[in-house]
Amino acid sequence: QTQLVESGGRLVQAGGSLRLSCAASGRTFSRYGLGWFRQAPGKEREIVAAINWSGGSTHYLDSVKGRFTISRDNAKNTVYLQMNSLKPEDTAVYYCAAESSYFSGNYASASSYGYWGQGTQVTVSS
To answer: In whole angstroms, what is the distance from residue 56 CA to residue 43 CA?
Structure first.
């Protein structure tokens, strides 16, 4: 019943920008941490950005700091990832996720996440 659906992935040139969206249904995630993950070919999945339930605290992968911004709109049950100054190494399938429960604790830890979207492809050309 619970579903997370990403959108916005596409081909973009290096230096360009893209905004990913993730809309949730079947469950309200206003009290859950939310995150964005990515997996590139031949690489392990990694956490890109995360945001706590209120939106007051965020976490970023070191390589995207200053370029990516995570935000959420609890009224819309939606989380966003604004990606600027994109690099070819940002190419990956991007997934959104929600914490497993209200009290998972550390929203910045990948192990806290239990609900996942289907992924959206982001390709950055040089």
So the answer is: 31
Nearby residues of 18 by Cβ (< 8 Å), 6 or more positions away:
8, 9, 10, 12, 83, 86, 122
Question: Rounded to 5, what percent of the chain is helix, strand, coil?
Answer: 5, 50, 45
Largest CA distance in the chain: 42
> What are the pLDDT digits (tens) for 60-94?
999 999 999 999 999 999 999 999 999 999 999 99
Rounded to 5 degrees, φ, ψ at 48 are: -95, -45
pLDDT in tens, 88-122: 999 999 999 999 987 667 999 999 999 999 999 99
Q: What's the CA gap between 84 and 67, in Å, rounded?
A: 5
The single-letter code of the amino acid at 100 is S
Question: What distances in angstroms separate CA 124 from CA 29, 44, 61, one per listed residue?
Answer: 30, 19, 18
Spacing of C-alpha 65 from chain mean position: 14
SS3 30: coil
SS3 assignment, position 25:
strand
First vs last Cα of the chain: how many Å apart? 40
